[in-house]
Specification:
about 200 residues, alpha/beta, 8 helices, globular
Length: about 200
């Protein structure tokens, strides 16, 4: 089962990247992003792709420029996540055959992203919009639009967000912060997955 959960490994380092990815995949999380403001993010992405590229969708987050999209593609990444809606970044991502999840907060940004070819939308920061915000946004979006809530959505409120029509979630510090061991991340990932599975049951 592929769950609509994107693990955000902000601060992960290349020597631990492949092991952290294995831990997440084993727990049932198969979409992973390494934010570009992490240490040597392209090396971490390349290390994960080398070992796990056939088992997970792996790429970068906090992608702000077309050049960064090109760099992630060069490292083998298949996923581009941004905190903002930059149509040039989206178009470059799709031109290179990667999945595009730009950040949006307003209908204007949402439609600009979709018109540029985005595969899904990252509602960010979701905590400011709340479940009521995504519900209101959904009323005007095309029916099959994927909307992921990022920032403020997690194990304790998955059900509220899903009831309000969220399709998926990006999970950061609740899963990984620098200094955690693979066992720590495994325990957190299992708890997140169990909470998500319970929320959709």
């Amino acid at each position: 089962m592929t769950r609509p959960l994107i693990a955000i490994l902000r601060g992960v380092k290349p020597p631990e990247a492949a092991q952290m990815a294995a831990t997440l995949i084993d727990a049932g999380i198969t979409q992973i992003e390494v934010p570009m403001n992490s240490p040597d993010p392209l090396d971490s992405i390349a290390a994960m792709m080398k070992v796990h590229g056939t088992k997970a969708m792996i790429g970068a987050g906090t992608v702000l420029t077309v050049d960064q999209v090109q760099q992630v593609a060069g490292a083998g990444g298949t996923l581009i996540v941004s905190p903002n809606c930059d149509v040039d970044v989206i178009r470059k991502t799709k031109a290179l055959g990667m999945q595009s999840f730009p950040g949006i907060f307003t209908p204007t940004e949402a439609f600009a992203a979709l018109n540029a070819g985005a595969d899904g939308l990252k509602l960010f920061p979701a905590e400011l919009a709340g479940p009521s915000g995504i519900k209101a946004l959904r009323a005007v979006l095309p029916k099959d639009t994927k909307v992921y809530a990022v920032g403020g959505a997690g194990a304790d409120n998955f059900a509220d967000w899903i009831a309000a029509s969220a399709d998926g979630f990006g999970i950061g510090s609740a899963l990984y912060t620098p200094g955690l061991t693979p066992d720590d991340v495994a325990n957190r990932a299992k708890a997140i997955v169990a909470a998500y599975d319970k929320a959709i049951a």
